[in-house]
## 1
Amino acid sequence: MNNRTKLILWDSALISGIMLFLFWNIQPHSNLIIGLITVLILSNCAAKHIAAYKLTGKIY
């Protein structure tokens, strides 16, 4: 996989995590776990986008 495909996969994981957090009614402690995992995915996405920007000079 190239970098652009990885970026798209991480972004789709971030969007699905946000959708799970907002729209899936589950127990409150599970909501906390989903929220923490979504924050970890967000930080990973930001790092990947910054790395791609440094390599190519543009953000996808």
Note: The mean pLDDT is 82.
## 2
Amino acid sequence: MSRNMPDFGVAAVATPEQLWDRLGESVKARINVRAGTILEWWASPGADRRPAVTVLGTNALIVAEPTMGADGRLANRLTTVPLDPASIQRARVVENPEPAPPHNRRRTEVIDLREYLPPQARELLEDPFSASAPESLRRVQYYVPVPERAILRIWYYLTDQRTLTFATGLGHGFRDATGADSWDITCWRATVRPPAR
């Protein structure tokens, strides 16, 4: 790994596409029924290196996590955050920011990427939650460094079960001391539908 690349603890085992292909067809079918039209998706190694998948669709955000069933067999737990399709907004942020001041952190410390994101992307992610208590937010973030090209792929979402914000994209020329030379990020926002009664 390049000396300038952050160590996020992501093993170079399989691409998201390869992990998606390993997901069982019945799980994919359940995701497709709940998600509606898929806008974005991500797969990463979960428990026992089995795929963990997050899908943003027009009808819901779906998180599929590998688990064991009550009978001891391999299973997947699906968590659904239902969305109002009419509320979905999308914005693209392409920016070459000024380098961030160097950070003095230990190499093993996992960083919160939001401190490096362009201000517009941070605002799109965080603005709906300015009045939310931090413990009421569910945060998920994935990072995949591509050291030979100094590219960082990100996937990040926040929800307080009333609103969901979401960002995915690339940081080019990323160094953990100063951030990326340029960002190309797509941000999404949607209202969470109350559960059906």
Note: Confidence is low (pLDDT under 50) at residues 1-11, 106-110.
